[in-house]
Amino acid sequence: MKRRNFIRNIGVAGVGLPLVGSNLSFDLASAQSKPGQFPVSITTWNFHQAGKKSGELLSEGIPALDAVQQGVMIEESNLENTTVGKGGAPDREGEVTLDACIMAPDGNCGSVAYLKNIEHPVAVARKVMEETPHVMLVGEGAYNFAIQNGFEPTNLLTENSKKHWKKWLKEKEYKPIINIENHDTIGMLAIDKASDIAGACTTSGLAYKMQGRVGDSPIIGAGLFLDNEIGGAVATGMGEEIMKNVSSFLVVELMRQGKSPQEACEIAIKRIIRSNNRYKDFQVALLALNKQGEVGAYCIHPGFSYVLNRAGENINIKSESYL
Ligand code: ASP
């Protein structure tokens, strides 16, 4: 069964909306805002299995840091997912290079970028956080560090990704794709039973990117940021725009000033729109969770959705968009 068949898609226009394929009605506002209802996790796009995994772990009392790592690792291993981990689309030269980061409730964080031949960059990022005095390792250094820490080298380029890359080579059109069938960078935030928040973000980046290109996903403050007193945010979409605006950090700072997660995401997306008049050509989506367990999401183009897991139950929710 396809993953999306598991998912109950709902709209955002209001409360009491019927669930697709279900007789139940669903109160979106109350699902997004259930203060104090922990554990909770939110995951970009429709990564249902990842949301389910984190929800199960959180329900068992596993800390948020482990839950987000284990959750996103599901997609790193999913060969059908061409935007994260093994099976991810390669760069122009046909090499798959991965970016990931992880952030703990105490503000500690780890990150890897331009990592080749390792299936779980987020697990390497966690090692960087825990085993080194640094935040970020890249390229060959990150790879050597992974091997020294027991990670197995693996070929990340699948036959399917290779076939699509060869097809792309014929035209070599370098154009960002707005929403890749709802499968893109996986960013996840979770609050555990102890009310602590953690987050992770992992991606193969833009398909057929320039060699050496690194996006927002491994950049703390851009692809992911959190503060255990306030909440957290993750980003997906055009990494360059997210980096220029340090969007995840901005969302958390707006929540610190009293904005709801929804208001914070909207303000941060509008900041990107104001700063680049070509905003119609790319997608950026932001997802946020505050310490009260309230959720917000906003994006430029329609098409972004996220998985909310509360009390072990997954719901896929469409985000509102600027356009
Ligand atoms: N943000 C990722 C990057 O720019 C890609 C994505 O989320 O679609 O690498």
Would you write up a description of this structure?
This protein has about 325 residues and is an alpha+beta fold. The chain has one domain: Glutamine Phosphoribosylpyrophosphate, subunit 1, domain 1. The chain is built from nine helices and 16 strands. Strands 1-15-14-4-8-9-5-6-7 form a nine-stranded mixed sheet. Strands 10-11-12-13-16 form a five-stranded mixed sheet, covered by helices on one side. Strand 14 (about 305-310) and strand 15 form a beta hairpin. It starts with 8 loop residues before the first strand and ends with a strand. Mean pLDDT is about 90; it is low at about 1-25. The chain binds aspartic acid. The site of aspartic acid has 12 residues, from strand 11. Aspartic acid binds near residues 184, 203, 238 and 239.
Q: In terms of topology, how is this protein built?
A:
Elements: E1 9-10, E2 17-18, E3 25-26, H1 28-32, E4 40-44, H2 48-59, H3 64-76, E5 98-103, E6 109-115, H4 121-131, E7 136-138, H5 139-148, H6 159-171, E8 186-191, E9 197-203, E10 224-227, E11 231-237, H7 239-245, H8 247-256, H9 261-275, E12 284-290, E13 295-299, E14 305-310, E15 313-318, E16 320-321
Parallel strand pairs: 1-15, 6-7, 13-16
Antiparallel strand pairs: 2-3, 4-8, 4-14, 5-6, 5-9, 8-9, 10-11, 11-12, 12-13, 14-15
This protein binds aspartic acid.
